[in-house]
Amino acid sequence: MGPPYDDALLSAKQIGPDSWLYITEYQGGATVSDVYRYYLSAELKTEPLKALGHIAPFLTADTADAKVNKWGNRVSINLSGKVYQFTSSVFYTSDGIAMTPSIDFTSRTP
Question: What does pTM read for this prediction?
């Protein structure tokens, strides 16, 4: 698989010792609404955009400004904007250890 959708990597941020947040932006052009996809994963050291092609986003929204924090096994997300898709079911491995964080999600329409 290749890069997800027609996206560009917008952000890669470590949010915990074993967890990274990746945000991609859809490159559909001026006539397409803003679409941002959020992924949780272990660090993707080489070709992160290509690796994201094998992972489903846990959140798709019209903003890249969601506040995402992680404490232990809990991930907290606060977003002000339109949500296109969300799932609280996330699974990934970090150094061979299965990670299944609990996700708290708050969304507000601006």
Answer: 0.90
